[in-house]
Amino acid sequence: MTGKWKSFGIAVAVVGALGIAACGSSSSSSSSGPKGNLEFAVFHAFSGPNAAYGPEAAAGCYPAIVEINAAGGILGHKVHCTPVDSKGEPADAVPAANRMIASSSSLVGVIGGGSNEATAVVPLFQQAHIPIFSTTGQSSFDHNTASYFWRILSPDSAQGSAMAAAAKKLGITRAATMFGNDIAAQGSAPSAIAGVKRLGLALPASQTLAVGQSSYRSEATAMSNAKPQAIITEADPQTSATYFSELSQVGQVPKLITDPVSQEPNWRKAMGGAIGTTLLNKQDYAVVAYSPATLPAYKVFTSELMASAKHVPNPSQWNADLYSVADYDSAIIMALAMDAAHSDAPGVYNRYVTKVTAPSSGATIVHTYAAGKAALAHGKHIQYVGAVGPVHFNQWHNAGNAFAIERYVNGNWKVYSLITAAEINAAAGF
Amino acid sequence: MSVSDAGEAPVFDSVSAGYGGHEVVHDVSLAVGQGQIACIVGPNGAGKSTLLRAITGDAQFLGGRVWLGGEEISRIPSNRLIKRGLAWVPQVDDVFTTLTVRENLELGGFLLPRKGVAARVDELLDTFPLLAGMTSRVAGRLSGGERKLLAIARALMPAPSALLLDEPTAGLSPEMTGLVLQNQIPRLSASGVAILLVEQRALEAIAVSSRVHVMVSGVIRASREAHEVTDWDELARVFLGEQ
Amino acid sequence: MAVFISAVGFGVVTAAILAISAVGFTLQFSVTNVFNLAFGSVMTLSGFVAYWLNHAGLNIWVAMAAAAVSGGLISLAINEAIYTPFIRHGLNLFGMVIVTISVAVIFDHGLQAAVGPTFFSYTAPAGKAFRFADFVLTRQELIIVGIAVLLTILVQVALQYTRVGKAMRGLAINASLARACGVPTRGVIALAWFVSGVLAGVGGVALFLDISTFTATTGSEFLIVIIAAAVLGGIGSPRGAVLGALVVGIVTEVGAAYWNAELKDVLAFGVLIAVLLVRPQGLFSRLATERAIAR
Prior knowledge:
The structure holds three protein chains of three kinds.
Chain A: H1 3-15, H2 19-32, E1 38-44, H3 53-70, E2 79-85, H4 90-103, E3 107-112, H5 118-128, E4 132-134, E5 149-151, H6 158-169, E6 175-180, H7 183-198, E7 206-209, H8 217-226, E8 230-234, H9 237-250, E9 255-258, H10 265-275, H11 277-283, E10 284-289, H12 296-306, H13 322-341, H14 346-349, E11 364-366, H15 369-377, E12 382-386, E13 389-390, E14 403-409, E15 412-419, H16 421-428
Parallel strand pairs in A: 1-2, 1-3, 3-4, 4-5, 6-7, 6-8, 8-9, 9-10, 11-12
Antiparallel strand pairs in A: 10-14, 12-13, 14-15
Helix pairs in contact in A: 1-2, 3-12, 3-13, 4-5, 6-7, 6-16, 8-9, 9-10, 10-11, 13-15
Chain B: E1 11-19, E2 22-31, E3 37-41, H1 48-55, E4 60-68, E5 71-72, E6 86-89, H2 101-108, H3 114-127, H4 129-132, H5 144-156, E7 162-166, H6 174-190, E8 194-199, H7 202-208, E9 211-216, E10 219-225, H8 232-239
Parallel strand pairs in B: 3-8, 3-9, 6-7, 7-8
Antiparallel strand pairs in B: 1-2, 1-4, 4-5, 9-10
Helix pairs in contact in B: 2-5, 6-7
Chain C: H1 2-32, H2 39-55, H3 60-88, H4 93-115, E1 129-132, E2 135-138, H5 139-161, H6 163-173, H7 175-180, H8 185-211, H9 218-233, H10 238-258, H11 264-278
Antiparallel strand pairs in C: 1-2
């Protein structure tokens, strides 16, 4: 994208009209002018309480530009990552976004917009016709209609749906639920309960516990009497330990369908002390977002991540971080869409995002930017299968990741079974 | 009466007392003979109670000395005074309200040998027959007079040689005032206890006392043998602060 | 009916565990008039003493006895080293509450820095389960209930019938008059701190066994329920603390069984407020009026 086009594009964006027409004219100018740099903005909190979100997303962007630039850049342009601090607050994020849109002459895409600021800033990027690949967990984007908004990962509520889907996958017909009444646990409780019903499983007990009590004997007795084959559960370590220790006294502890909390050392220590590690490991089925370490794109991501140490301090800390992985895929997808569109104009290439990710017969499956660029250059259709796996956007521009049931075996978490996005959608009612 | 011939009885020698470093009672000297009743009378706020409270640790002892049984007892911790034979009955909060009558008496005998407590309780119940019928009643439920009798009986449990009584008739009915002042207190002194009585009801107190001290503004203005107090006009003038 | 009986039964177990600590809290408060919010920290510290001994191979009940002694000594030490100087300077009741909160924060967070922000459990088999209809009790729970009953009766009998117990009650209601009777108040106050610490130690280990896992701040987290039991019964009355614990325990379990597990403590504290509206002094009041801190 040239500076000349960009200033024209910004003028259009600011008045908020005729975006498509303006961008349509830009594709020709981009091929004729000097090859400038393109920018991906990493728009996240780099300060404040959620200051970890920014570096986490940057750890996805920088490996992607290493990959892209090594393959010769996009349409001849080198690509940069530009961190922009949203501070995790709408009050700070909105002016920061406006400043960025107005001042940055080579901005082609945004990686970011977390749950704290997405609602406030997505309309701004929509109006400016700049694609934003967000990692917000809010369910309000489940039926998103903003054409420039894209979400690779599942919303927070998918965790509950995945737990219900896991119960069905494990052959359970009677699944009870037990959730703490804290905010974290209540995030997935409604979708888990709805999922159990939607999948036609019996729900013999559905408990919400006041956390931090000295006794749950009455609740544990009621659960024991309900005789579930499995309990779908999320509660803090203390509440879980007290409850399940009392459940083990009044009856049997059935299969436990848990969430990533159960993989935290504190939860395992508390629960291990309460019901014994042998019983815990035998009954626990943890349902976690799936990031397949064996995928070719994931291997490329990890090696490019290690090559990004100049911009990403201590890079290995991010190599299993699902958000970093998804943000890496976001940048690669935007780059491939530009190649497919033969244009770095956001208003043009945005429509090509699904064309480089959707499965279709005859499409060449690619796992790297270089391979995708080469295939496109030969006039082929491509499907990018990224580091998070296939990215299949629905009409709401939501893809949704797969989940895995993991079991703790001999000191390691092992994938026991996969839950596909389709199975989760069935539980979620999509 | 001088310190040397005081015998068992308490002697106050130039005592000053007050609160928070502020002197209320100035340079008081007086003594109580064994088996006698001395009373301190005076208007409200004269410092009568402060003098007693300085001995019992509830007000500040700012100067002077107090002797009992030939030994100095000023400035020793108040919970050791009873070992020296000094007992007292405060004006208010004079019983353990949540304890029964019997328990109040038993606690009064805290320092007695364990085996002697029950017998001593019985002795005092004989002395105060009014209390004998209500030993298991909680002290907080007693009438004002019953309560004061219990307070006195409690103080007498370890058989003290001297007893300080801070306005024992405050708030009592006329009948109970009569019972306490004209009946019980004289009987106690007859049994050999030296009694220092602080009273608002000057006339009744003087009637049962052997010696009278008039305190005004923290100073003893006059000391007389009780039977010498016949000039009521003079007493009234002293009360009003005239010399 | 079976559900009701089992909920009441479970309530008794919860009550037993709360009662041990509630009696300790109320006893010390009634004698010294220091509203000691560091009580939970004493529970936790002695709970950790039991943890270390237990993991060194000691039987949990022996470890509990050791926790009792160390709880007593910790409680005594806190009073002598920290509270007494403030009391001598005449700090008022409210000021003392702030001091006790500070002590609790220092102890809890200091301990957390030492042991880490993680969870600990005793090595103690729950033992054979005894089942009566829906009502299941393990051997461990029966022992805890037994200990609670024994200790609360012991405290009650000691206060009621022994010389030092009467002195303690006398001191609680009228320190000045207790001195007039020759009661060595400093010694009796020290004894009250020690006994209260012993009960904190036993109560802490019993609670941590019951909830099966604990952290450096668990004692303080449960202090509010313990205080609620004590206040409900009438602060200052060990008998009241037991009764208050029974009300809190049974109301929460019956509420969870019949109504809504999420709102069990809403129900319990609702009952607390309702009782205090009718009887502001609690079920058994010992302290008629506000007093100064006992010295």
